[in-house]
Design brief:
The chain is an all-alpha fold and about 200 residues long. Helices cover about 75% and strands about 0% of the residues. It folds into 2 domains: about 55 residues, Homeodomain-like (Arc Repressor Mutant, subunit A), CATH 1.10.10; about 140 residues, Tetracycline Repressor, domain 2 (Orthogonal Bundle). The longest helix has 27 residues. The radius of gyration is 19 Å and the shape is elongated.
Length: about 200
């Protein structure tokens, strides 16, 4: 639904998205109804349907907003980096930190990956993330900072490591200490052999 919204309208839309995101994450997408969302906010169903055609559209909007916010965080993190490897390192760290700070978005991404109605949209966002990371990896290869390899595969590997780490933290199986984050960043950069000695 494309409506020209006033600032107040944008704020109301954001309230609906924020409230629903938390309900979806805490109670599950399927058990959470539109009625529960509007009752929780103290508004009528007409308000909901002014902004969203359906609960599905609402979740798609939440997922898109989360992916956009993550990309903005990554772009801000790599600004001013002097080498491709520094861009990669900053991007990995920003991705982990954002995902740790945004448990709700992370949980909804995990759910969306398992539901055909949302998986395609989520995959498009992941493809953008992999493409961006692969570009930085290619730059690092061209600069001689890392050996030639498959940039796309390396980008997928980094995404897998960071996603699994964050998943463990959000499940309460691992504490998100600075050492844990640094270990994950280091593993993405150097693998099990550790940093190369110069």
């Amino acid at each position: 639904m494309d409506r020209k919204l006033t600032q107040r309208g944008e704020e109301r839309r954001r309230q609906l998205m924020d409230f629903a995101a938390n309900r979806f994450a805490d109670n599950g997408y399927h058990p959470t109804s539109v009625a529960e969302i509007v009752e929780g906010l103290g508004v009528g169903k007409g308000v909901f349907y002014w902004y969203f055609d359906s609960k599905e559209e609402l979740l798609r909007s939440i997922l898109a907003a989360g992916q956009l916010d993550l990309r903005r965080r990554q772009r801000a993190a790599i600004t001013g980096a002097s080498t491709p490897m520094e861009r990669i390192e900053r991007g990995i760290r920003a991705s982990i930190e954002w995902s740790l700070e945004h448990r709700v978005f992370f949980q909804l991404f995990q759910f969306a990956a398992t539901d055909d109605r949302f998986a395609d949209g989520l995959r498009k966002g992941e493809q953008i993330a992999v493409r961006d990371a692969a570009r930085h990896v290619s730059d690092a290869m061209e600069a001689g900072e890392i050996p030639d390899s498959n940039p796309n595969l390396l980008a997928h590997n980094m995404l897998g490591v960071t996603t699994h780490l964050v998943h463990l933290v959000h499940r309460g199986l691992l504490e998100a200490t600075d050492d844990v984050v640094e270990n994950a960043v280091g593993f993405c950069l150097y693998g099990v052999l550790g940093p190369r000695q110069t």
